[in-house]
Amino acid sequence: MKNLEIFDHIKDRSLMAVLVVDRVEEAVNTANALIKGGVSVVELTLRTPIAIEAIQAVIDNCPGMLVGAGTVLKPEQVERVKKAGAHFALSPGVNANVLIESNNFELPFIPGIATPSELQTAIDLGCTCLKLFPAEPLGGMPYLKSLSEPYKHLNIKYIPLGGININNFSSYLSCPEVISIGGSWLTPETLIKEQSWKKITTIAEESIRIIGKKSNC
Fold it and tell me: Can you give the C-alpha Rg of the chain in angstroms?
């Protein structure tokens, strides 16, 4: 899928679960639990040795899940996640070599930004969808509004992540530039280790309900 198509799919689904796992089965079971709860976008981070294998397993075993490879920090990782089947990729910062490689492999990429200078660098490298990270420590929604204002005419879109939870994520939904909200509140490590898949489904369902309430206000 091309960049705009991927970003439209992400926008339609509103929430992105951030997932860090030590076992492939954890990734598959968590992804299926999220799907049951109505969340069908996941950032599966490359922070553990089995992450690439987990990405491929989720794509093979969890129909309907849009899978992003997270924490892609090096150009050589781009080819690996593309071959594993990742639909898109993300990073916590801006790396020109990684972005060039993602273009070479036609892998939609969402770099992380925290400042106007980083935002402009990402724009210069052809990015139109950016990850605001870490969103809450930076100042949350007020910071995003101030940061995005000078660039509104460029139609830049944002996915805030970092410090976001079930109690504060809805505040970001009022911003038309925000296409999705991401966080690990959807996939608590303790629940994954306990194999409490039903509880993860319940968290996903409650988060989707909050979105519904917000859109009906």
Answer: 16
Known catalytic residue at 43:
yes
37 neighbors 29 (Cβ within 8 angstroms)? no
Is 149 among the residues known to form the active site?
no
What local confidence, expressed as pLDDT, does residue 174 receive? 85
Strand order in the sheet with 129-132: 112-113, 129-132, 157-160
Full-model pTM: 0.94
Closest CA to 32 of 22, 45, 17: 17
Q: Respond yes or no on whether the N-terminal peptide bond of residue 134 is cis (omega within 30° of 0).
A: yes
Kindly list the structural domains of the chain, giving each domain's residue range(s) and its CATH number in brackets, ordered by start: 3-215 (3.20.20.70)
Predicted local confidence at residue 217, as pLDDT: 34
Which of 43, 101, 136, 177 is catalytic? The answer is: 43
Spans of the chain below 50 pLDDT: 215-217
Name the active-site residue from 26, 82, 101, 131.
Answer: 131
